[in-house]
Amino acid sequence: MPAIADEETVPTFAELGLPPVLVSALARQGIEAPFPIQAAAIPDVMSGRDVLGRGKTGSGKTLAFGLPLLARLSGRKAAPKRPLALILVPTRELAQQVQTNLEPLGRGLGLRFKTVIGQTSMFKQIDALRRGVEVLVATPGRLKDLMRQGACDLSDVEIAVLDEADHMADMGFLPDVTDILDAAQPGGQRLLFSATLDKDVDVLVRRYLNEPVTHAIGPVDESVDTMDHHLLLVAPKEKGAITAEIANREGRTILFARTKHGVDRLAKQLTQAGVRAAGLHGGKSQGLRTRTLAEFREGSISVLVATDVAARGIHVDDVTLVMHVDPPADHKDYMHRAGRTARAGERGTVVTLVLPHQVRSTSAMTRRAGINAPRTRVTTGDAELVKLTGARQPSGIPIEEPLIPERPARREGGRGRPGARRGRGPRTFDREGGNRRRDGEGGRGEHRSFSSGERRGGPRTGGGSHGNRRGASFGGDRRTARTS
């Protein structure tokens, strides 16, 4: 029977047994009291129990497993290539989000982190593992590649965490996940955390968790009290114009389309209408995805258009409206899309554009999700549309330049002597991408290094074949206090 946390009497982080250095680090970030899922799970994780945790998106699951993991590893040192803890996640964005939230806290305990994801330099990941990493945050595909190459040995992993375990199963990662968990230290601690714990996760629970403690915050299909849901019935010929009006509202907004092509097409249509929008999906380079999220967090773009896969990795504060331009395939996708707004007690609105032939299926989907979403028929410029969403007529003046270029702008002068020719970084091979590429998103505008000592158009940078390049780094530093 799941343990339901008592939200009335939540203990402090110190009372949960966390070391003073962690409590102080949390206080410096303005995090004074644990969320219910954290108060429920931290003592069991600290005691070494296997834990099955479920909380609504935005309920603080990352710190629920991350804080006790850091406390248990405090002061430990990993051998080369042999991490002590593994946090396995389904998407690159989620991996970066987990590291962003936990690495600053672990630094005070002397713990080293490394994110292992596709479309980033494998050489740098191998080098970090060779030097020693206590906490490894990884996606299954890239981690399997490193294991096959002998660059990573999981036999010392004492704590293995599966974050968004249900999504891992939905995406077909179960074979890779089981291979990875089989390679971890037998008898080690296993933690599964997710927004939902359904039958797809049962195979992992039965195989890898030993008498787990289950912590569930609220009923499985409980909706967020601060989230309003609406089904907007639209005519096919007006759908594009209504989408643009809603996207042009004030405030941070996320639009969801079903396919990568749909995301790109919609983002282009919005910029042509004068709306500052950018797309996010798995077909874009990791550097471009990182820059897009950073620009969205910082407010340079106000509208993000994304696919379902990207939904799990978007943890941005102050998203006030989520719009399903294409209704999701099932109720779980609906809930995960919707979870990008109304986070940590803030209010948010979720609207779904519904064509005439989609009314029955969409209404059934919201019922399965336990959502009460009233239907409203709207047209362009409709007063009810403005009332529900804050829709505004866009300027219609196209935004010609790319809001977020594929490659960052070349720096004037660069490094090395003035006027030197700037080549490209060394080639790396990304097994997940399946093709050769240049290391670093900067590509052009960086020195090429030669280990043999030859020079081409400028001085050698660094002593090794990798040189001392500066790769482009566009990760958003802004951290959310509570992340799912």
Plain-language structure description:
The chain has 484 residues and is an alpha/beta fold. It is built from 16 helices and 16 strands. It folds into 3 domains: 20-216, Rossmann fold (3-Layer(aba) Sandwich), CATH 3.40.50.300; 227-389, P-loop containing nucleotide triphosphate hydrolases (Rossmann fold, 3-Layer(aba) Sandwich); 411-474, no CATH class. It has helices at 20-28, 36-46, 61-73, 92-107, 122-131, 140-148, 165-170, 174-183, 202-208, 239-247, 260-272, 286-298, 308-311, 331-338, 359-368, 383-389, and strands spanning 51-54, 85-88, 113-116, 135-138, 159-163, 189-194, 213-216, 227-233, 252-256, 277-280, 303-306, 319-324, 348-354, 375-377, 427-430, 435-438. Strands 3-4-2-5-6-1-7 form a 7-stranded parallel β-sheet, with helices on both faces. Helix 3 crosses helix 4. The protein is globular. Mean pLDDT is 82; it is low at 1-7 and 411-484.
Count structural domains: 3
Oligomer: single chain
Side-by-side strand order of the widest sheet: 3-4-2-5-6-1-7
Mean pLDDT: 82
The structural class is alpha/beta
Q: Could you tell me how far the N terminus lies from the C terminus, measured between alpha carbons in angstroms?
A: 23 Å
Helix content: 25-40%
Q: Report the strand count.
A: 16
Q: Provide the gyration radius in Å.
A: 23 Å
Which shape, going by the Cα principal axes?
globular
Under CATH, the topology of the largest domain is which? Answer: Rossmann fold
- In the predicted model, the low-confidence regions spanning at least 5 consecutive residues are 1-7, 411-484
CATH superfamily of the largest domain: P-loop containing nucleotide triphosphate hydrolases
Largest sheet: 7 strands, parallel
The CATH architecture of the largest domain can be given as 3-Layer(aba) Sandwich
| Percentage of residues in strands | 15-25%
SS field, number of helical segments: 16
The CATH first-level class of the largest domain comes to: Alpha Beta
